[in-house]
Amino acid sequence: MVNGDEDEIRNLIEQWAAAVHAGDLDAVLAHHSDDIVMFDVPPPFEGVRGIDAYRAAWPPFFAWQRQGASFAIDSLDVTAGGDVAFAHALLRCGTPRELAERPDLRLRLTVGLRKRDGRWVVTHEHHSFPDTSVDAAPPGNGAGKA
């Protein structure tokens, strides 16, 4: 039933992303464990731990998003085992101006899930943007070698 699990998780994440875009906090919190750990783009650097801290992290994002920002999945890959799963996605996340200035910019999302009492719950989220402050070649591509 792994494929069915992958479809279920894909649907769960797509509903979560739609809830984030809509600013629907209750729907954002649905399917998250009480002991959720989120590593987000803004501080705190040690992450957000627990459902109450996770809940408190969203209102500032929703306020920013009301400026007309997008939050939409471009790609989503899911891998599910019997009781543990993970997914990774790329999302268009930015204001119209930000996305026009950097059309290739994507938010990177990684989600860890566990199956508890027969249903999938999110136990970990990691959100990040690439560091564009330095225009350096990635390691291992031969740059800088004579």
What's the number of helices? 4
User: In which order are the strands of the major sheet placed?
Assistant: 2-1-6-5-4-3
Number of domains: 1
Number of strands: 6
What's the end-to-end separation, in Å? 52 Å
Question: What is the molecular shape?
Answer: globular
CATH architecture level-2 label: Roll
Average pLDDT confidence is 90
- Give me the CATH fold name: Nuclear Transport Factor 2, Chain: A
Fraction in helix: 25-40%
Rg, Cα atoms, Å: 17 Å
Name the beta content range. Answer: 35-45%
What does this structure look like?
With 146 residues, the chain is an alpha+beta fold. The protein has one domain (2-128): Nuclear Transport Factor 2, Chain: A (Roll), CATH 3.10.450.50. 32% of the residues lie in helices and 36% in strands. It contains 4 helices and 6 strands; from the N terminus they run H-H-E-E-H-E-E-H-E-E. It has helices at 2-22, 25-29, 51-65, 96-101, and strands at 32-39, 48-49, 70-80, 84-94, 107-116, 119-128. It has a 6-stranded mixed beta sheet. A hairpin with an 8-residue loop joins strand 1 (32-39) and strand 2 (48-49). The longest helix has 21 residues, at 2-22. It is globular and about 45 Å long. It starts with a helix and ends in an 18-residue tail after the last strand. Mean pLDDT is 90; it is low at 142-146.
